[in-house]
């Protein structure tokens, strides 16, 4: 009897393993199928390195005779930025600086399409190279601004990279691309709103910097949405189930493990998001708006040829925005009751 139960258990687990292997293999084949399309579109979504903007295009030139004068102007303009805006800008910078985590996470996607000399790894490296400029630019600006305790900020950056993150995508390319589609839209909103608030506070340089970063994020969002759209065309059922799964888990931000000296993993993140919510830089309503944008761009409502599980997943996704919007509209603006170790004085 015990043998029969054990044999049945082993057979069941072997069945599950083979099923998971089948789906992983199928998704790998889909990724290979759309790789050619991605390579054809790569120049549309990523800019040539030689002519792309670089951080030095916006910052005081250390070889110029006006270098020290330019720094004084930068510091003077940064002086009137609000406390919350500086906190959000630092949090955004730390998030951008944790880029090694994101590159290695995308590289962990399994399948023959992710071999080192393959097209998707080429995309990963070039996307990373564009993203790398964002943290470089903001970090140097903050260093020159005189508003930041750089050591405390650098400690938080090192923690965020060392702690890693778990965004619930595993090694699945579908879930990874759903996440990046969502996340690039979110970072576009955040940087664009910071640009607007910086301009209002009189810092036109910071406004221009955040504006070009937001433009990059918008381009990257279009890319990942497009790639995911190709996946929906080839494998609609599994793509729909992956979308449902990510929406049930809720999209977590890359900085959800953010912390400062003496604090546990994630303890600073809530204070950072409170500041963003107070400023209107990124809110619960924005989360719902992004979800709705993905639903419309991927034409979820009108998607047919789904099996029963796919239809149930589609119905869940379609009903979710209105439900979350009711929750978001009832949320109160958080009060100011926290001092960040990052901000000088």
* The first-level CATH class name: Mainly Alpha
Number of helices, counting only DSSP H or I runs of 4 residues or more = 12
Counting DSSP E segments of at least 2 residues, the number of strands comes to 0
**How many separate domains make up the residues?**
1
CATH superfamily: Ribonucleotide Reductase, subunit A
At CATH level 2, the architecture is: Orthogonal Bundle
User: Topology as H/E string?
Assistant: HHHHHHHHHHHH
The pLDDT mean sits at: 90
Give the overall shape.
Answer: globular
Low-confidence stretches: 1-22
* Spatial gap, N to C terminus: 72 Å
Helix content: over 70%
Strand percent estimate: under 5%
| Major sheet summary line | none
- The Rg value, from CA coordinates, equals 22 Å
Q: Structural class per helix/strand content?
A: mainly alpha
Q: What is the CATH topology descriptor?
A: Ribonucleotide Reductase, subunit A
Please explain how this structure is put together.
The chain is mainly alpha-helical and 345 residues long. It has one domain: Ribonucleotide Reductase, subunit A (Orthogonal Bundle), CATH 1.10.620. It contains 12 helices and no strands. The protein has helices spanning 2-45, 67-78, 83-97, 99-107, 119-145, 150-163, 173-200, 204-234, 236-249, 269-279, 284-297, 308-330. α3 crosses α6 (150-163), α3 (83-97) crosses α10 (269-279) and α7 crosses α9 (236-249). The longest helix is centred in the N-terminal third of the chain and has 44 residues, at 2-45. The protein starts with a helix and ends in a 15-residue tail after the last helix. Mean pLDDT is 90; it is low at 1-22.
